Amino acid sequence: MATHHLSALSEHDEIDLVAAVDVDPARLETFRAGNPTMRGYTDLHEMLNTEKPDLVSVCTPPALHVEQVKQALRAGAWVWCEKPPCLSLAGYDEMVDAEGTNGPYASFVFQQRFGSGAEHASTLLSSGELGTPLVAHCQTTWYRDSRYFSVPWRGKWETEGGGPAMGHGIHQIDLLLHLLGPWTEVQAMTGRLQHDIDTEDVSTALVRFSSGALATIVNSVLSPDESSRIRLDCSEATLDLIHLYGHGNENWHYTPAPHVTDQERIARWRTPERDEPSSHRWMLRELVTAMRAGKRPPCSGRDGRRVLELLTALYKSAATGRAVSATEIDPDDPHYTVIHGGHPEKLTRRGKASTT
User: Fold this and answer.
1) Biggest alpha carbon distance in the chain?
2) Domains plus CATH for the chain?
3) Do 254 and 231 form a contact (C-beta atoms < 8 A)?
4) 65, 137, 191, 264: most buried by Cβ count inside 10 Å?
5) What SUPFAM superfamilies would the database entry show (predicted)?
6) pLDDT in tens, 22-81
């Protein structure tokens, strides 16, 4: 992921690359090879004290995010941190508590909500142009083999924080929330059906939104025919996004309801004013603009927390066998501190599940 960040940072006119940090000196030198002016460090604290950067990009395993983000914020740097933000809501709130009153802020990478297709869809939905959202489907069905999970921190609750819901589907879920807004309850099931890992390798959920819309969410790393998809059936049209790891205008499809016959209106749905794919580059532009203005950027604070709230409720529902409301997980809830609530075995069972 650091290479994606490096590409976006290198292309931004207002950004000077000053340093890179990695605990592995050989890997650090390989990373710096194309940017020899970047100074190399093997210690984050030393880099922060020496370079005093304005912005720090964090591309480390999820279990390291909280301490590294807090360290950067307290050194006065804004932060651009890879997903998932961290392993729990408690950790997320720790990072927010380390922010300043008017910055620096930490923004978390959910680049799929950016791009002209997503911008256009959001505008159509918020304006009511597509009618009332009724039914939604959010799908991240990917395939990962055993070699993928041979990386030491993957597939473990204490270092990755969850399975495909947390590590893969989080992007589509964030985009779904960006398009549909607040949710009220979730009912979920998870299981470990194939891989020899600690976390789940598949999850399903039913979600009710504040608008009344009902959604299904499916996350899998067991699916040879890989796809990422969001489908929204509204009273005036169906919106369908089908892609894999990123989308452009060509991936967004609009099908009018039978009673909608105005061809100019339909043409407006299908022709955004510009064509720019989802990307780290677009998100970085928004972040730098917020930095210049001293304002909270997208995907930070309350906005960045929403997807982690839903994921925590998803895991709690799967562990307890009941619906979980959007407001019930507070600091006294065991799932607030540890996303599996202290009972990971309840999230990786096979066959018929018991309820508690």
Assistant:
1) 65
2) 2-110+283-296 (3.40.50.720), 112-277 (3.30.360.10)
3) no
4) 65
5) Glyceraldehyde-3-phosphate dehydrogenase-like, C-terminal domain (SSF55347), NAD(P)-binding Rossmann-fold domains (SSF51735)
6) 999 999 999 999 888 899 999 999 999 999 999 999 999 999 999 999 999 999 999 999
